[in-house]
Fold each of these.
Amino acid sequence: GRAGKSLFEAQRVGRGKIVTHGGYYASPAAVRDGLRNGEFFLHFQPVVDLVTGAAIGAEALVRWQHPTRGLVPPAEFIPLCEASGSMEVLGHWVIRESIARAADWRRLRRWDREPVSVSINASARELASTGYGAYVLAECADTGLPPGLVRIEVTETDLGTDTAAVRANIRILRGAGVLISMDDFGTGHSSLSRLTEIDLDVLKIDQSFVAVIESGRDSPVADLTIKLAATLGLQVIAEGVETEEQAEWLRQRGCSFAQGYLYSRPVPSDEFVERFLVHRSAARP
Ligand code: C2E
Ligand code: MG
Ligand code: MG
Ligand code: MG
């Protein structure tokens, strides 16, 4: 039956890890209960300008405070939600909540500062589901958030399922001004020609290519990604920046934006507002 198939899929999708009999905890009923009980919450990680240190936006990252399992990381439960059919209900909550917070930020931001965007991760199934783009835009309309302040993060793997629905969602979103970011760039299997076929706005350098920059060592992949982004006219954001040395290396090569523990861990919306929107001085450098 359906449950059996879901569990089998859960075992395959667990990012190299073998996930056994854990699939049940992310069933649609469990996720609905968890949402009702307030077990899910979002943290936001600032995206900063590498030169000024000011936040240009933040990425929404979901967490699950499970009553018996404790704090479960998204890398563990997102694949289970995808496999068990609960991703849509969770994804809708993430979108609604992220856009509501970004609408708050817009109201709180000083009038003389650039507005900040919110980045939302899309899973493969969400992106391939009819109505995904329309749902994002409906939430923008409801909250008054301009779609231009929303970024949807997709991975090369998500785009691998290049169905008509994926293309339609991207077209609807971009048509309304939403930006599309390629997450974890360089870790998937897409070819360069494929990259130029997709309508993209942002390349995010995967944190693994930033982590190798240490004690004078270069990152050829990060270097190439920055050049590629410039050639294609895309914005480039480095992920996982943890040291000033990495930040400096990236700045020198023309990378404009970054995320990482050097600037901030993912934090509750209130803390993001307090540290990055109200008291800008807390931002580095
Ligand atoms: P991602 O979108 O590539 O997010 C970046 C991950 O790197 C986050 O892990 C973040 O906490 C972590 N990170 C940020 N800065 C640093 C740093 O300086 N050093 C290190 N070592 N790590 C850093 P997190 O929050 O555990 O999320 C993992 C993945 O789960 C995300 O990768 C994303 O693919 C997925 N995810 C998170 N939230 C959602 C969501 O709402 N929907 C979907 N579909 N996927 C999500
Ligand atoms: Mg992301
Ligand atoms: Mg990433
Ligand atoms: Mg990732």
Amino acid sequence: EKGGYEHFMLKEMHEQPKAVKDTLTPRIKNGDVVIEELGMTDEEIRAIRKIFIVACGSAYHTGVTSKYIFEKLARIPVEVDLASEFRYRDPILPENTLVVIVSQSGETADTLAALRLAKEKGVRTLGIVNVVGSSIAREADNVMYTWAGPEIAVATTKAYSTQLIAQYLLAMKFAKVRGTVSQNDFDAMIQSLERLPEQISLLLSHKENVQRFANRYLAAEHVFFIGRGIDYAISMEGSLKLKEISYIHSEAYAAGELKHGTISLIEDGRLVVAVLTQPELYKKTISNIQEVKTRGAFVMAVTTVGNTEVEKVADYVVYLPETNPIFANSLAIIPLQLFGYYVSIGRGLDVDKPRNLAKSVTVE
Ligand code: F6R
């Protein structure tokens, strides 16, 4: 059942190229993004004034990423909410709001309650769901399925990757219809998307390097992940992956926030993972790396090939293949998933079933 892999998580990480492809390919037709199940006319898409993305955990992290992408490409304001917060804060949902609910299981109690609240308020809802026929899939006005297939490991990997793809496609569709993206840029994005599966495979094939590095940090007590913009969203997911399966305390910080408190926790030998995939922010994050290095941190950087400046400041660098920076999460998350996985098994833990956690959280 594990297809020759030692754990479901390892198997599912390796299924990501296929899961991404299966979620992407049916929705790209003749160089265009076609999402029939969206059930919205171009006129309806143009009328949307605001988008809420509501989810829990890793699914929420995909929403944080796609906020940057939606706002950049389609120029629509996006709010991202944790479902458990959204449902109790009496959210303001004007007409022409679209509420996007993201869930692998389609059964997460808070996420389902958030969907019901949005429907009660009379706004349009769209589910991005992996489990076919689940509660969220049945109750949302429309549902866009992610085609990750069954995910068994508690820590999500392939479902996360497909949730990102679904939201990239959605943002591109909105941008195209609203005329906020040029045809040239759009065509280049399609090409970048189509290269992702192969690029993910390449990163997976370097897993032994990540393992070797992870083995040096099995006894870490605290790990900090830093980044800016989309790199901050990637940091959140990288940090969650590590902590939930390794039981090592880790936190993600917006790199610019470090000096507002967190930097006091940096001391000799502390591991800091820096994510740099957004070229316009490289310089800023590099200066944050210097700040933690000065205080004795050991820095692992995940960055895009060509950013050789990072080598001058970081201790260990993982290079990602070139892509459109808006899609960088899909690549940067791979070494971070692998890092969490190898730290967990290196510590002898039950990586597929971490303590206290359930795959589907059906109670609030
Ligand atoms: C972390 C993880 C969780 C889920 C969260 C939402 O690896 O898997 O944080 O992302 O519980 O679950 P779904 O997507 O089923 O609503």
